[in-house]
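Appendix C: a fully annotated inverse folding record. The material below is reproduced so that readers can follow the format used throughout the book. The structure is listed first as tokens, followed by the designed sequence.
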């Protein structure tokens, strides 16, 4: 089997297209939580070893928003949706009180960071979902501070599956506030709990197979448990799981839903097919996915969103336009514009213009 690629179209530079990254990152000070947690919690503060930090970038924009705006110009990107780096691992904290305190610290830091240019920098708040009423209060507080979505664990605590009604009050609040809920890789109680102790073939198995399985299972549970029957305007964003695998998996859900329905053995009854819920309630980000780019000619026109993953080591910065030309150059200008800018622009109500 060969890897699917898309040839770069000669002469295509996409130099005039508006670009918005739907998944970029900040890089937090490793001592942020130790410095800001109350005295009684300092001994529980998350601490980060050198190898946990080395995988990120030394670009100044990760921690300095003014430097970031300049580095965005270098990449031709007009706006970015911002997720954490170090704090992703904090979704595996088992103390609700500690997790809530850590997330409040991060959210306040991020709101201050984005305040430098709220048109171009869109922050996504971290939400601890052990206590749903507290999560709702934090979502409301963060919206008032200018953040425009909420990030929860992609792999929930085993005692709090997405198939339960535990999350319904949060879904209702997010729907009412028009705050999309994001699910990012390396969050929660999946393989990321052992991220820095992986060895051997598990480095491949977890980084590809298990990662995609975790995302697929969460999407399946949300759709099949009727979340979108109850909250039809609720939006989820599947972040950094890439997209090339999605058409096959979603098509298979439809196929088996129809098969089980016909045989009378279907364990669930939905008002529409799983693929239709994906189309109406999910968004998905990607940044270096040639196979997914090829499939976008027929799939995901209205809900797949390009990203540059800046400033992480895998980022397409500062060559994002070249990568887009390579992977998306075969698309019509109208379809490509949705994928690289306008879908994210509408989802997050971003008021940006081209800066490159």
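Designed amino acids, in order:
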């Amino acid at each position: 089997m060969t890897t699917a690629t898309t040839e770069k179209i000669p002469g295509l530079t996409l130099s005039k297209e508006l670009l918005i990254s739907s998944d970029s990152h900040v890089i937090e000070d490793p001592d942020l939580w130790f410095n800001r947690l109350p005295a009684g919690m300092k001994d529980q503060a998350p601490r980060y070893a050198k190898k946990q930090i080395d995988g990120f970038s030394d670009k100044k924009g990760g921690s300095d928003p003014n430097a970031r705006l300049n580095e965005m110009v270098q990449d031709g990107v007009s706006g970015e949706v911002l997720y954490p780096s170090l704090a992703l691992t904090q979704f595996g904290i088992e103390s609700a009180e500690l997790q809530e305190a850590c997330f409040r610290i991060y959210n306040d830091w991020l709101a201050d960071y984005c305040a430098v240019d709220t048109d171009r920098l869109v922050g996504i708040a971290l939400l601890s979902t052990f206590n749903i009423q507290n999560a709702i209060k934090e979502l409301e507080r963060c919206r008032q501070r200018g953040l425009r979505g909420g990030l929860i664990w992609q792999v929930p605590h085993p005692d709090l599956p997405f198939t339960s009604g535990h999350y319904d009050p949060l879904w209702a609040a997010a729907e009412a506030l028009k705050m999309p809920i994001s699910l990012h890789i390396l969050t929660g109680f999946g393989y990321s709990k052992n991220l820095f102790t992986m060895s051997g073939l598990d480095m491949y198995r977890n980084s590809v197979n298990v990662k995609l399985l975790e995302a697929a299972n969460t999407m399946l549970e949300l759709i099949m448990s009727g979340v979108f029957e109850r909250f039809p305007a609720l939006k989820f964003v599947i972040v950094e799981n890439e997209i090339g695998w999605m058409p096959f998996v979603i098509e298979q859900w439809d196929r088996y839903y129809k098969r089980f329905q016909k045989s009378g053995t279907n364990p669930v009854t939905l008002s529409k097919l799983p693929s239709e819920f994906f189309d109406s309630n999910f968004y998905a980000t990607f940044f270096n996915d040639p196979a997914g780019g090829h499939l976008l000619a027929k799939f995901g026109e209205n809900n797949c969103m390009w990203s540059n993953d800046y400033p992480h080591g895998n980022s397409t910065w500062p060559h994002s336009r070249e990568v887009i030309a390579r992977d998306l150059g075969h698309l019509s200008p109208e379809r490509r514009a949705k994928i690289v800018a306008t879908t994210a622009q509408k989802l997050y109500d971003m008021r940006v213009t081209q800066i490159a």
